[in-house]
Amino acid sequence: MNIFCTIERKKTNKNFFEYKPKSLKIVEKAIIKFAPIANNINPNEQDSYDVFITTDNYGIGVNMQDASVVINYDIAWTPIEPIQRAGRILRLWDDFRIVKIYTFVPMLSEKSELQKELLDVRKRWDNLMIRHEESRKLTDLPVITSEENELINMPDFAPDTIVTKGHLTLKTEDDKDVSPFYQHTYNLHFYREQAEGLENDLISALNYDGESVLLYLLLKCNNEYKIVLYDCKKNKISSPHPEKILNLIRCEPPTHVAVVDMNEVEKIADLVIQKWCEEQKFIKENIERICTLYLKPVVQDDSLDNLLKN
Fold it and tell me: Are 131 and 143 spatial neighbours (Cβ–Cβ below 8 Å)?
């Protein structure tokens, strides 16, 4: 059995280890090997994964419906997370099949030395079940259950009427646990026309509450979009989850543009793209820059000066 995990353990010294996520490039290749049909690739039994273990970093936005089993080995914090996890495989398929979803539920024991910790976890589970029942008003599909086993026939949940148009506010107190991704989608709805009218290679700047200068780049390489985030103070490039980027760059039309020298932003962007291409083994000339956003800390950060000097 071939198993892939998105986290790897590295030994830091003789007695200690650290756990780090594998690079996006490696994980993307593993997803294709785990679910080739869902990703429009011819399956190869000699080069595939049977089990895919991941954190919530890949709980949304990936196609894994080649699989028919989801195992929740931890308890989610919000009711939308189990739905997102199950949604990786609860999709249209070419044949009738049974999809199984398992969740590890904490059990209390009087003899347990971790009684208090288990009690806290159990309370979180009970609260999650309550919120999950509320979330079904939006999803109309249960993916976790308070019973030991529950058989669900998907056609039973098909609505009798088809809703052709509706309005979801996502602005009330009851919606505080809804995934931020849906909040961003809701906001984009009102500005979609303006967003689609923007030209490529847009450059802007935004004040934010962080501690160091960040540069966000959306690049296009081989017809695929790549997210690049550069931390000037740490001199580090990362590719965060889209939801994290959306939380970071979110702004409204009245938001003022940060006062920066756009020529310097251009210089930094070129340096970052060059560095990213070297790390990813890409040819810089094949990279198209879609947009650049300079994130300026409210408190002055000297890391930019150091970067330009180097």
Answer: no
